[in-house]
Amino acid sequence: MDIFKKCYDYLEPRIAREQGYYPYFIPFSGGDDTVMLYKGAAKIMIGSNNYLGLTHHPKIVEAAQKALVEYGTGRTGSRFLNGTLDIHEEFEKELADFTGKQAALIFSTGFLANMGTIATLLDKHDTVIIDKLDHASIVEGCRMSGAPIVRYKHNDLNDLRLVLEKLPPERGRMIIVDGIFSMEGDIAQLPQICQLADEFKARLMVDDAHSFGVLGPNGNGTSAHFGVTDQVDLIMGTFSKSFGAVGGFIAGDTEVVDYIKHKSKSMIFTASLPPSVVASTRAALEIIKSEPQRRERLWEIGDYMRKEYQRMGFDTGNSETPIIPIVIGDNMKTFLFWKTLFEEGVYTNAVIYPAVPSNSARLRTSYIATHTQKQLDFVLDKFHKIGKQLGVI
């Protein structure tokens, strides 16, 4: 059997491209935060994770340019050997302070942060308990760890309790949960999860990829939002959402972070984050802390759009954040909706199984603090028009 046979037989993307409804790998040529250009045509962007609109902020761009001149384009090596700069360690101290933890460790991507942390801390003698809708990076980290994986129903605390009650008491255990769920737009019930973790002697890790900059009194995440930071053992974050760049980190007790630092393969065998990215994300952190009006505006937009979608008759699931799914169900109708929106000047994300549960295909919409009211109303007009045409509403 030729191992490439599955590649040659994989026809779905080719058929979708030929029929004109392929919604992925769209090559934009430029634009700003809220408007992107495709073959010269403007598309209002409601499919980005650039929640605070920081990717073109002049202070952030200036910081990246300055670091580029001072440090060059990269370190060409792992943090473990030649890849650590003074600004890496300074930023880690700032991240620890921001999250309310003793220490933090930067990874080159958020995916590597999750995967490396989980695979390093757990093994076959432990059990890992995850929400059924946790991010793929969490699932991959769990698989790599060799620890048995137990999933509980999404945001269902009764099911989580049942799962914990069945675990052998002698096994190590860790609960891992998203703070904000990226495809649902709802928030983990963290105070209750903390209580269960304490009752059943489980460690608790929270993935705050979509929460930093969005939740918390200073944009400092789900744990701070609920006031339970001291009850959460590990907090993970990314720089590819509100920070407007790329990278990730894990924060926790000094000893735990130091162990990960010396044992995680995705840390030791990956080149370090480029200095320009470190500088830009440090600048982003300062803006997140000093400009709360961005976060406030983001929530105003999210609440407005959700209310309007629901008024039209769209299914927005359990969304309670500026991530608002438009649940359609049927894959082909979802692709057709996406294609028509795109042609009308709106870009969002078409999401199908396995990224979401089967029969719950959706358009994942998400918003930026710098969206104008005119742009938002344009989007709503197009959704209403196309939703009627396709019989979605």
Task: Summarize the topology.
Layout lengths: L4 H4 L3 H8 L10 E2 L3 E4 L2 E5 L12 H14 L14 H14 L3 E5 L2 H12 L4 E6 L4 H10 L3 E4 L4 H9 L6 E7 L11 H10 L3 E5 L14 H5 L7 E5 L9 E5 L1 H10 L1 H4 L6 H16 L1 H21 L10 E7 L1 H13 L2 E2 L1 E3 L9 E6 L6 H17 L4
Parallel strand pairs: 3-12, 5-6, 5-7, 7-8, 8-9
Antiparallel strand pairs: 1-2, 2-3, 4-10, 9-10, 11-14, 13-14
Keywords summarizing the entry:
Aspartate Aminotransferase, domain 2; 393 residues; four-stranded mixed sheet; Aspartate Aminotransferase, domain 1; alpha/beta; 17% strand; single chain; globular
Shape: globular
Low-pLDDT runs of 5+ residues are: none
How helical, in percent, are the residues?
40-55%
* Beta-strand content bin: 15-25%
Q: Could you tell me the mean pLDDT?
A: 96
Question: What's the main sheet like?
Answer: 7 strands, mixed
Order of helices and strands: HHEEEHHEHEHEHEHEHEEHHHHEHEEEH
CATH architecture designation of the largest domain: 3-Layer(aba) Sandwich
> What's the CATH C level of the largest domain?
Alpha Beta
Helix segment count?
Answer: 15
CATH topology of the largest domain: Aspartate Aminotransferase, domain 2
Question: Please, what is the CATH homologous superfamily of the largest domain?
Answer: Type I PLP-dependent aspartate aminotransferase-like (Major domain)
Termini separation (Å)? 48 Å
Radius of gyration: 21 Å
Provide the domain count: 2
Record the strand order, biggest sheet. 4-10-9-8-7-5-6
